[in-house]
Amino acid sequence: MTTTEFVGVPEATAVSPTVRQTARRAVPWIVLAVIATLIALLTILLTGGRAGEGIALDPANAAPTGAKAVAQVLRDHGVDVRSVTTLDQARSAAADDATVLVYDPDADLPSGGYRALAGDGRTLVLVEPGFQALQTVDPGVSAAGEPRGPVNAGCGVRAAERAQRIDPRSSPDFSEATSPGTFTVSGDGVACFTDPGGSASLVRTTFDDSTVYLLGSGAVLANDGVGRLGNAALALNLLGGHRTLVWYLPSLGDRPVTGPPDLSALTPGWVTPVMVLLLVVFLAAAVWRGRRFGPLVVENLPVVVRAGETREGRARLYQRSSARLRAADALRVGTIGRLSALVGLPSTSTTQEVADVVAASTRRDRGAVHALLLERVPATDRELMALSDDLAELERATAAAVSPAPGPDRKNG
Questions:
Q1: d(Cα 83, Cα 75) in Å, to the nearest integer?
Q2: Predicted confidence (pLDDT) at residue 174 exceeds the cutoff of 90
Q3: What is the pTM of this model?
Q4: Distance CA 183, CA 143 (A)
């Protein structure tokens, strides 16, 4: 029901919130929007505006730092490329005749993991191995810094001879994902692609009856570096020597568990069954007590809500939400409807016409009556009470003005 239908005065308009009040309510949302914008800008600045480049050297990653190109070419040549992320998966996927590539930039794989992968005729290709991996596989090989430029094979390793010359350096995009390096060899390892300073980009050695290739630069396998010089030939010959290639990227699940035991390790074995039993008992008791009272019965009750109770309930709602404007509008709507009936105006009369007739009947200032019926905006509860009193007093004055005064005979009669 609209306001016009309720009071019978179509032109009675409610007082709406001002622009300042609306803007004040929108301040929290504006602050949240500014914070979200600042976070987005900070993220763009930290990431350089680039989208996520995925996992480095992931065989399913087609970004510049991925290795999907090499993996796809190997599959096209009949090599079964299996991507795994845990040691158990790698051991189960590696057959007796398999190549296992390990790229572990975060040193998640312990020394025992390399021993578990070696043997049984497997070939290991360790890409950018760290200190722990080098000490485990061949202590005679140590890190020697970044590669300086394109280098020639300079060794009798078959894969290196086919590649002839490679460029192990990385592009700016790839250098943020990995740390390419070189090696110095003091043991029985065979150094390949050695620069003038004696640092090798590829070393062939043995570990637990397995042939191990130490590749110092992951850029040789990356999508943005595999096409330079003989990088592709070296990658395909290192990884395509067996029918199965296990592409192993260790994860946090491979790290050894250290630190104090958790709660489950300290809890006796009987605690869990008892907790389950208690939960079952609780659910059974809830169902039992819930069914005790039977199904719900719908019963039509003769409920009568008094008009005064409705008025008081709505007043409490207005007070709780500090909706002074709505309360004032409700008071004005009722007053205008009753005033129009008192002065005998039709239901199609405008609010201005009602104000003019009431002002003329009560001999009051027309502007003051118009302001009382439309323009006054209470800012506090005290002002709202004063507005209510003034409206009631205006109704009483109008009723007294339009009612005929009793004559002397009628008083005595």
A1: 12
A2: no
A3: 0.54
A4: 5
